[in-house]
Specification:
Oligomer: single chain
Number of domains: 1
Strand content: under 5%
Number of helices: 8
Helix content: over 70%
Radius of gyration: 20 Å
Number of strands: 0
Distance between the termini: 44 Å
Largest sheet: none
Length: about 240
């Protein structure tokens, strides 16, 4: 019993830790159900590689399962930065073209919509937790230096590095698993034409690889815009707290 309480006090000391981990477990369970349903109800017992769970919108599931166990401040801030920028972007952007959310089975379609709505909720929650963490760190910083150092860029840079590593892993998976069926992780398989709206229109100008590179760059830019929005929210709250 004491070891259990100690485990909770160390790794789940905040309600947000519990929330993120529970969401991660629920997402994992629902993903396992999805894979079994796709394989046996739709694929007739053959695995459909197109739905292999390694898309931008899948990465938050893995992050949530890891997050509570990381105790280093910079690592946690970097994962929060990923959730509040890349995760939030992925959750919102998919509604610009909802064709990818629809499946032959209604239950899978509902699951897909709920998944992306949850991504938006997680992104917003991560942003609020990120700001709360920075405010708690203010007590360790001189007032004159607070605003300059209070919302550092480094966590976003690390989250972008994580995104690029995932992109590289996605390409390697795409090329390696191509022989087993149609697969297009992160929608950047160089063997297939870019399918994302807007970016596919650049293929005649930039070529397919150029359109893929533009898509990756645009994703980073979009995530950075979300990061700047959170920075603005933080500064407004900081200004309000300083004058109250």
């Amino acid at each position: 019993m004491n070891s259990k309480k100690q485990l909770i006090s160390i790794y789940f000391s905040y309600k947000s830790d519990i929330f993120f981990f529970v969401c991660g477990v629920l997402m994992l369970c629902s993903e396992i159900w999805k894979q079994f349903t796709l394989t046996f109800a739709i694929g007739g017992g053959s695995y459909i590689w197109w739905y292999f769970p390694f898309q931008l919108c899948s990465i938050p599931m893995y992050i949530l399962l890891v997050y509570p166990w990381l105790r280093k401040r910079n690592a946690r801030l970097s994962l929060l930065a990923f959730l509040m920028s890349y995760c939030l972007l992925g959750g919102i952007a998919v509604f610009a073209d909802t064709t990818g959310l629809h499946y032959p089975l209604k239950a899978l379609t509902i699951h897909s919509y709920l998944w992306h709505i949850l991504l938006i909720i997680l992104g917003i929650t991560a942003g609020l937790v990120y700001i709360r963490q920075l405010f708690s760190d203010q007590k360790k910083t001189l007032f004159s230096r607070r605003l300059a150092a209070a919302f550092p860029l480094r966590p976003f840079l690390y989250s972008t590095l994580l995104y690029l590593v995932c992109c590289l892993a996605a390409v390697l998976l795409d090329l390696w698993l191509d022989r087993y069926g149609t697969i297009n992780m992160f929608y950047i398989n160089p063997d297939y034409k870019m399918q994302q709206i807007i970016f596919r229109d650049f293929i005649p100008i930039l070529g397919n690889n150029g359109a893929i590179a533009l898509y990756i760059a645009a994703t980073i830019l979009g995530a950075f815009i979300f990061f700047l929005i959170w920075k603005l929210i933080y500064r407004l709250r900081f200004s309000f707290a300083s004058h109250s």
